[in-house]
Write a structure and sequence with these properties.
Two copies of one chain form a homodimer.
Chain A: H1 30-38, H2 43-50, E1 55-56, H3 57-63, H4 69-81, E2 85-90, E3 96-101, H5 103-131
The structure holds a DNA duplex (20 and 20 nucleotides).
DNA sequence: CTGAATCCGAGTCGATACTG
DNA sequence: CAGTATCGACTCGGATTCAG
C-alpha cells in the first residue's frame, strides 16, 4: 500500500461504528501500517533470526536462502529506519557490520509469535480451502 | 516506452482479475503466507467489520470509505477462497449477497487483536524513529 | 444491487554486475 | 566484507465502463 490514508469508518479496536462519519481526515491505520512492514517477503524471517542473536550482513545472507544483497540491504534499512533493528559498524579491515533487534524489535516477537502459532495451526485448513472447487 | 507488455506474452499470462489471487511462492512459510493475505490494503479492515456482523456488498462498500467495487470483490473473493469468509446469495430481485466470517475467520480475530494492540501501543515510537535523522 | 471487463501507473522484487 | 547500480518482470490497486 502506498502511504495513502485508508479512509476508514471503523478500526480494529473497539470504537462503536459511527454511522456517517463525516470526516475525510482519518489517520492512517497503525495496524495495517505495521503489518505492511512485517509482511514483505523477507522481514518476518529476518526479525525471527535476529530474535535469536545479532548477525553480520553476510551471515544473514547465508542464513536466508535466496535473498539478494539488494533485498537484504533494503529490508534491513527499513527495519532500522522503523527503529526495530540497530546497525553497528565496526571499522575493521575488512569492514564488519552487525545487526541486532532493538528493545522495540524484541517487543514485537511475542505478538508475532501469537499470529505465527495461529498460522501454523490453521495453514492446512487454508490450503485445503484454496483447493476446494468453486 | 514504459514497461507495458506487448502482444502474445501479455495475453497469455496477464489475467486482469485472477480469481484466487496468485499466491506466489509463499505457501512454503505458513506464517508469511497468512500475513501476506491479511496485509493487503483492505483485508484487515474487512475482517474487522465482518467480525462484528454479516454485511451485504454495498454495506461494505459504504462502510469502507474509498474502496472500489473491484477491490472489494477481489478481496472478498480471496477471503472466501481461503476459507475465512462465507458468501451467501439470496436470489431476490434485486439480488442480495451476504458475507460473514467462517469459524476459521473468527478464530483469526484474536491473534490479530494481539498484534493490533502492539501496533497501537508502539506506532508513535515507530513514526518517531522514521523521522529521526538517520 | 452485485458485480465483471479493461486500461494503466506505481510500487515490489529478482538478477546481475560492480565498488570501497 | 558489505554493500550500490541498473535493468526488467511482475503485481497491486485505482478509474472507468458495462452487465445480469
Amino acid at each position: 500500500m502506498t502511504t495513502r490514508n485508508t479512509g476508514v469508518r471503523a478500526s480494529l479496536h473497539h470504537h462503536p461504528l459511527p454511522n456517517p462519519v463525516p470526516t475525510g481526515e482519518y489517520e492512517h491505520c497503525p495496524v495495517t501500517d505495521v503489518l505492511r512492514r512485517v509482511t514483505d517477503k523477507w522481514t518476518l524471517l529476518l526479525i525471527t533470526l535476529l530474535g535469536r542473536r545479532p548477525y553480520r550482513f553476510n551471515e544473514l545472507h547465508r542464513a536466508v536462502e535466496g535473498i539478494s544483497p539488494r533485498m537484504l540491504t533494503r529490508t534491513l534499512r527499513t527495519l532500522e529506519s522503523d527503529g526495530l533493528v540497530d546497525r553497528e559498524v565496526f571499522p575493521t579491515v575488512p569492514p564488519s557490520v552487525e545487526y541486532r533487534l532493538t528493545p522495540l524489535g524484541v517487543s514485537l516477537l511475542e505478538p508475532l509469535s501469537v499470529l505465527a502459532e495461529w498460522a501454523v495451526d490453521h495453514h492446512t485448513e487454508i490450503v485445503a480451502a484454496r483447493q476446494r472447487p468453486s
